[in-house]
Amino acid sequence: MENQNGISNNGGPAPSDFYCQMAEEWHRTFGQPVCDFPTLPDLETTRRRANLMAEELGEVVEAMETGKIEQIAKELMDLLYVTAGTLVELGLHKKTFAMFSEVHQSNMSKTASLSQAIREAIWYEEEKGVQCDVIPSKTIDKYLIIRKGDGKVMKPSTYTEADIGKVLYGRKESPVE
Q1: In angstroms, what CA-CA distances link 130 with 114, 143, 164?
Q2: Cys bridge to 155: 27, 98, 120, 159, which one at CB 3.0-4.6 A?
Q3: Confidence check: pLDDT of 35 > 80
Q4: Are 112 and 145 in contact (CB under 8 A)?
Q5: How far apart are alpha carbons 5 and 77 in whole angstroms?
Q6: CA 32, CA 26: separation in Å to the nearest integer?
Q7: 109 and 153 in contact (C-beta within 8 Å)?
Q8: Residue range 92-117: average pLDDT?
Q9: 162 with 147: CB under 8 angstroms?
Q10: How sure is the predictor about 177, in pLDDT bands with cuts at 50, 70 and 90?
Q11: pTM (predicted TM-score)
Q12: pLDDT class of 17 with cuts at 50, 70, 90
């Protein structure tokens, strides 16, 4: 667990911030942009980082299609590295662990009681045309609404959105728009 400054309880960087530290080292060594505070990207940065991530994602898919676990692992690490570099360029790298924890907490809120899950699966079908199954969670006494076809876990009405603004600024809104 980390404190509000991004430091883990053992005094070192939070676990996921470690990846960003390595990416930051690479950026500084090779003269690439590093922002020390959250910064909106310009169009050139947006396109460059999006292209890099898309290229790496394509390589992940290609590796998965070949079925070689070593290559899949290597390509996933490349994707993680480029993603960490994007966090560095946008000045988000010092809060990675806290942001990831916030998103995790949000994702964990995608559970419901049985009656709620059934009602909402019916709602998805009637209102959105999305067929869903209701299945029990394997670890807690709650239920999941699962989209048929691809297995995506759907959001029940009790889902809580990740509040990244709170993590970055201590409040929901960004001070800069």
Answers
A1: 19, 18, 29
A2: 159
A3: yes
A4: yes
A5: 26
A6: 8
A7: no
A8: 95
A9: no
A10: low
A11: 0.81
A12: confident
The amino acid at residue 147 is R
The closest of 74, 84, 97 to 19, measured between CA atoms, is 84
Helix ranges (H only) for the chain are 15-29, 43-66, 69-89, 96-108, 114-128, 164-169
The single-letter code of the amino acid at 100 is F
Dihedral of CA atoms 82, 88, 91, 96 in degrees, nearest 10, equals 80
Residue 138 has which token pair? Answer: 């394997």
Q: At what angle do helices 69-89 and 43-66 cross, to 10 degrees?
A: 170
Domain ranges of the chain: 15-106, 111-147
- The fold for domain 15-106 equals putative ntp pyrophosphohydrolase like fold (1.10.3420)
Length of the chain: 177
Angle at 146 between CA 141 and CA 152, to 5 degrees: 120
The tokens of 54 are what? 């898309």
